[in-house]
Amino acid sequence: MPPGADGRVSRLQTPRTWTPRRRLEYPLDALNLQTHAPEEYAGKAVDFGGASYVVGPLLGGRSKYFVHALVNARSGLALHVIKVRRDHGADPAAARVASHETARAMALIRDRFRRDGSQIVIPFAFAVDGAGGTFEVHDNVDALGDPALPATVALLASRQKAGAGDTAGAIVDLRALLDQAPAHTVAWNDLGVRLLSAGDAAAAYDAVTHAVLIEPNLGLYRFNQALFAARAGYPTVAASRFLMLHERFPALHDHDEIGLELLLEDGRPEAAAQLTEHLPDARRDEISATVHAAIASRAEARRLASLGRPNPGGPDAATRLAYLAAAELASSNDWEIRLNHALTLMAVGQWTAAADALLRDLKRGPAFFLGYRLANAAYCHIQREDWAAALPLLHGLHAHLTRNGAPPNPFDLPSVATWWDGVGVTEERPEAAAELLTRAAAVLRDPTVQALAGWYQDAVHAYPPLPVSPPEAPPPSARLRWWERVFRWRP
User: Fold this and answer.
1) pTM higher than 0.85, yes or no?
2) Burial of 53 by CB count in 10 Å (0-12 exposed, 13-18 middle, 19+ buried)?
3) Does domain 29-139 sit in CATH 3.40.630.10?
């Protein structure tokens, strides 16, 4: 049964649009160090890294810093602290340099401890050039809130159950907690961890995604997103989530070795090569050799695949298929090459092989392309008149298109695809797909398939009509050609 055919929709199956990250150099406008004293920050509301916070009261700490907790406005949890050097007022430039040096030094120490296998935990920190000065932001992941609050008591009780092996009981407790405190990000992350232990990686991904949406500035949550997606069998989502983590926190190298594996699994060795510098010394050379071999294989595979692309005046279909088959052998993890091989099989009428190849990688590639895989595999089976194989795919396509609870936009309906170029898909106009679905609806007499056929017929009318070439003029008669020669003649 394809994903979505049973009506369940996971965030792993919903479309994603890449949004450039909100730069961390533009936060904390309300804490302008040129107009506000750090000891007066308490109670101010600030936006930072895509979330809203309230600055907590001044905390005791080392004498060279003003220290405040950053309380997430939605969860009420203080998972970060903000620090301002006390010498900032006397020499802002020197304080800025010192804050950045502190963040770099802490990153190096954390990196060294991690590579040496030390059990010492140093919180992740980074420096931010904000409004009127420089701030240091430190993770405070162990801040669970007031220990007397019911939510904290329930969270700790769930951890005790999990530690005793009662994973199911811990999940029940966490769900009850989240019914009462739906923005408790620590509980959402814990729920994801417990669900993963229980074998439901897709639900674990959904749980930790709740945490990320509320608290996007914690590397632990973002790494768990990538890890849980990988465990659920979605390597492209996993690799993309890890790259988003690495872009937002480039000095955080705690998870580089796992991230490198995720990138290689999704066929991205060039991105993986950027992570080899911070690997443990004992394995760096071995892993680097593996990564560079993958880069060389992928380059050769992409060269062969480019020869298999359909181009006017290019090689015939049999030759293109040979190039794509060779490219697939050269880089076994490149789902884009396998996809184009499948679409080329479909273009030459090898319906069974094309359908099998399209369905082999359902969980690879961008989430929106799931609809194209289901649709085109169904089109292959319709061409074969294998209605038993086409019906569940069409049901899965219908569930995918209506996952948001509304009929699809006519321009979003997946038509007969011919090539994937790494960014978008080349496809035929909807007439071909509408004709196939109309045939299927007439044979199957299934309400879901009839609804699909109706949407595609509507899409045909929504597209602008094809331009009609003017009819060619009939050739002139022999007598007319003779008179034309007479009148054109000049002595």
Assistant:
1) no
2) buried
3) no
